[in-house]
Structures are given as C-alpha cells and as structure tokens.
Amino acid sequence: MTTALRKLIVKTLLTTTILCAAALAAPGLPAAADILIADFEGENYGQWKTTGEAFGPGPARGTLPGQQPVTGFNGKGLVNSYFKGDGTTGTLTSPPFKIEREFISFLIGGGMDPEMTCMDLLIDGKLVRTATNVKSGGSEALTTESWDVSEFVGKTAVIRIVDQAKGSWGHINVDHIVQTDRKPEGADATAKREFNIEKPYLNLPVKAGAPRRVVATFVDGRIQTKHTFELADEPEWWLPLEVSAWRGKTLTLIVSGLPGNSKALELVEQSDSIKHTADAYPDWQMGPFVKHPKPVLSPTPGSRFQCPILGKEVRWEEQNVYNPAAVVRNGKVYLLYRADDKNPGLKWGRTCRIGLAYSEDGINFTRHPTPVLYPDNDPWKQYEWEGGCEDLHIVEGEDGTYYMNYTTWNGGGDTMSVATSRDLYTWTKHGPAFRKATPGNVGGRSGVVVSRLEGNRLIATKVNGKYWMYYTHPCALAWSDNLIDWTRADKSVWPGNHESGAIALLRDEGILVMFNTQGWKKPLPYQGGTWTLGQALIDRNDLTTVLKHPDQPFLYPELDWEKRGFTDFTTVANTVVPFKGRWLLYYGAADRHIGLAVFTPKANSPFSLVK
Q1: Does the structure show a pLDDT above 50 at 17?
Q2: Fewest CB atoms within 10 A around its CB: which of 33, 279, 294, 567?
Q3: Please, which pLDDT band fits residue 231 given cuts at 50, 70 and 90?
Q4: Residue 43, exposed/middle/buried by CB under 10 A (0-12, 13-18, 19+)?
Q5: pLDDT above 50 for 232
Q6: DSSP letters of 423-479?
Q7: Concatenated DSSP letters of 121-173
C-alpha cells in the first residue's frame, strides 16, 4: 500500500468519524426509540410477581366493582389494586430490566400515600425513586409522571408497585411504563439536591393548597424518610425537617412531581434554627414544634405478658402504642403509654394496657418488658375489662407523688380513674375519679390537671384553694382537694369538639391549655375528621373564659405514619415536658405510633428553661 493511499484511508476514516459524531450530537434529530416496560394489556401479569390479593389475578379492564370511574389509562388494561375493595393489600414486582434511556415515564393514580400506595424503583435492592398519586386525598384519574434516571443508565433495576393501605383510597392505579429519552409532555420529573449536613434543620418552603409533592431523603444510598409536602415557590411558612442524625454525611433530597421551572428545591435552607414568620407564635403560645422524622416508639410483637384475667400469655403491645404521658425524673424521660394487643375473641378485639419506656435523650427509648398498669382481678375490673386502661395524663404532687388520670373502658362506656406511684413502675389504683362525689355517674376521660413550672418540673397547683382539672371533650372542669377524689364543677370551656390535651400550665397572663380537636372554623389543607392539636389561653380567675384562641392548629398529620394506621389522620397529645432546655411533646400518631415534636425556646422566651 502506497503512502498516498494510507493517507487517503486515514483521512476518510477521520472524516466519517467526525461526521457521525456530529450527527449524533446534532439537535433536532430523532431520539432513540422508546422501550416499553409494561402496558398491562395481557390477561395476566406475565413475569411480574404478585404478593397478597390487592392486584388480583391479572390487569383490570378499567373500573372494578364498587369503584369510582377510572380514567386516563391507555388501551384496555391497567394495574388496579382495588381488587375486592380497599381492604386488600399486596405488591406487584417487575422482572429485572436494564436502564437504557434517560427517563421512565408512567401513568399513575389512586391513593395519595408515598409509603402505602406507591410505585418504587429499586437498584441493587435500594430504593432510588418513588412516586404516588399527588392529587390531594386521591383520584381515579391517572396522570403522566416520570423519573429522571439518567444517572442509572446501564444498571439493572426492578419496579415494585405497593398497596399496603386498607382505608379510604387504599389502592393504586398504574399503566403504560416506558423507558424514553424524551421527557413526556405534561410530566413532572424527579428533582434532587444534595446537602452536606452540618446543621440540624432543613427548612422547606410550603404553602397551604399548593400541589403536594413526594419528598424523600437518602443517605448512603438508602432511603431515610418519605413524605408528601405542599412545596411552593412563594411559601407562607417553612416546614423544618430535623436532619441532625446525619450530621457529617451527604443527604440527597429527592422531590417527585416538581415542575421543571419550580424554584422550591432551591429555596430549601440548611439552618441552625427553624425559619418562621415573626408573628407565627405570640408570647403566650408555645412553638414552633419541630417533628422528629420517625416514631420514637412503634408496636412490637415481641413483648409478652401473662394476663391475670385470661390466665394466658398475650402479646400486649403488638397492635398499637400511642397517646402517652411523659415524666422527667433523675435526668431521664419516662414515657407511660397506651398499648393494644390483638384478641379477636373479645368483643372489642383488643385490650389496652399501660406500658413504660425510658430514655437518656428523649428520642431513643428502652422498654420495660411488661405493662405497669393493666386490668386485673381487683375491685376495679368492672370498669377496666374487657377494653382496658388507655389514654392517660400524669402530674406530680408537691411531695413527689405521681398522679395518673387514665381512661378505662368496659365495653359500655368510658370511666376516668386515678392511680398513684412514687417510682412510676408500681402503681396503686384508687378507682373512678368521681365515684365518691357522684357514685351513679362516674363517666369521663382525658383529665389534665392545672400545673405550674418549677425549675424543670410540672407540679399540680391549687387555684382559689383547690386543684382543678380539665377533662372530656368539652374541656369540662372538676375540682379536688387531694388529686384523687374529684367533683364536677358543672361548667366547661367549650360546648364540644375540644378534648383536654397535653398541658394546663398556670402562668401570669392565664392558663395555657393544649387541646385535641377535629373542629376548626378556618378551612385547612387536609381532609375533614382529622385530629389536630391547638392551644388557647384561659382566664386564670374563672378558669373558663377563652382569652386567646388561634384559628389554626399548631400540629396536625403530615408524615405518612401520622396519616395511615389504626385510625387514619390522627395526632393526639396528652403530654409536653421540659427536658434539657427544650419542651418535648409526645403524641399518638394514627393511633399506632408515638411521635415527638420539640420546641426550643429562645433565651428571651417566656417558656425558656433551666438547662
């Protein structure tokens, strides 16, 4: 071969290579063809694997019996987990596939719950993307969404469609899952941002009524939290996420369904403090309270107890743990909490008992192995069996005795009873609080005693020569000389809708009463029937006149484990205690878990504490 011929060949090859590269990079040329992952048009799911009953024997042909009309799917078939109604659960998992395009697009509808009704993308067993219907509450109209998976091209993945919800909107609809290099028109893709965690909070911009987005946090390649929030470019307030547990690590915040022109993710701030409007919490009110992202206690099947009435062993806290009271003693936080077993043989299907756990930091708790208060073959069995001992409040007396007001249920009605202890482990029952004053009328529940802050202790305090207690749903008043025997005062703060809650704190300007309620005059960004927490300032002279009452709650269900559980959309608090310079509010979430929200007062706050 001559030298001239070699040069000609090399020149030709170089020219061809450059032209090919230019052609590939040139804009406006057709993208690579889409790759169909699943269109669910067959009679069965093929190589996709199911668990449980929710997804039925194969794709649905549209709307299922008893379901609202399903729209927005392609062709004749789709994934519809409403099989046999919202009571069934299960999963549907794809065979492994290789990611070969920049986006995965799909149609999705059904319930809005990023934990219980969702579609997940997993790589090497780790969740890397997730989606749920983002229309508030739920919708049977499927809409287009997509994930940006460009960073995973070449890797093997699986898709898992999840239905673990049993209540209203406890199902998911999915169709037409496709790999594509073209972001589908109208679809909102995944957005993400990384933070090197050096400070305790991420402040997220939110606005009531803004579209809800799935927000997930990842650390070390593993998902840590997954919630839905109303992220907004023009926030009304800031929602703090506590991230101190990952200090020194890189946290990735991933938001699904965020429009490409949104600035919400850019507005997220890492901070040493909670960002909020200056007038959000006036001096008379506690707050803001920052939620711990995960429950501090959840049910466990491992705890066993020999029930003295049944004469057999029961798993006494396997179904629910919630609605606790807290006491700070000897530098530790003690939680006494309501725990439910499962017993289909009983009329109510369960018995409630009072458990105990303690913590050095207020977050990580060690459980006592058996309940400390429970129905027994004693004189009070007629009030406590079969339902048991439940929602409770504890206050300390002047001499260091602890007084517990707890609700008992015998299947016919609530009774508020009293027990005392010197060490929180051993309790003496005294029977119904009203049995001496009104033997024929001992009904009642949820009694919180007026107390004062002394150092870091909450001490029962007399007003006008008597101890006072707010109890039951109207926050009715009762009085006592000894904190055991109570007499109704035949007056209440509200006519209804307000149940006495976490504290009744005596202050110079009045009594700060926290309450649990389902009723607010102002429309709120969550569904009706939701149990929320409020605060009010009550006149300290007549104990019933409301001096101040905000028009919105200070705590309500936002996190997924607060919205789905034994009773959906429920946050109920019976306790808030001072501990190491902060106020710790423990609350029942969805009647299944115990959550924690923390208020850190500034140095000049009227609620500042001795550290």
Answers
A1: no
A2: 279
A3: confident
A4: exposed
A5: yes
A6: SSSS-EEEEETTTTT-TT--B----EE-EEEETTEEEE--BTTBEEEEETTTTEEEE
A7: EEETTEEEEEE---SSSEEEEEEEEEEE-GGGTT-EEEEEEEE---STT--EE
Burial of 485 (0-12, 13-18, 19+ CB in 10 A): middle
pTM of the model: 0.68
- H/E element, 321: strand 320-329
473 and 497 in contact (C-beta within 8 Å)? yes
**pLDDT, tens digit, 9 for 90 and up, residues 399-428:** 999 999 999 998 888 899 999 999 999 999
Query: Domain 292-302+380-599, what architecture?
Result: 5 Propeller (2.115)
- Tokens matching residue 116: 């219980």
Q: What distance in Å separates the CA atoms of residue 295 and residue 73, rounded to the nearest whole number? A: 37
Partners of residue 120 on adjacent β-strands? 130, 160
C-alpha to C-alpha distance for 91 and 162, rounded to whole angstroms: 5
Rounded-to-integer distance, Cα 108 and Cα 140, Å:
9
Q: Which of 22-31, 437-446, 462-471, 555-564 has the highest mean pLDDT?
A: 462-471
Which residues of the chain form CATH 2.60.120.200? 35-180
Q: Per CATH, is 35-180 categorized as 2.60.120.200?
A: yes
For residue 189, name the pLDDT band (cuts at 50, 70, 90): low
**What is the Cα–Cα distance from 448 to 475, expressed in whole angstroms?**
9
Task: Determine the Cα–Cα distance for residues 180 and 182; give it in Å rounded to an integer.
Answer: 5
Higher pLDDT, 174 or 209: 174
CATH number of 191-271: 2.60.120
The structure tokens listed for 73 are 């799917």
Q: Which two tokens stand for residue 134?
A: 């983002």
pLDDT of residue 558: 76
Cα 275 to Cα 204, 206, 210, 264, distances in angstroms: 9, 12, 19, 15
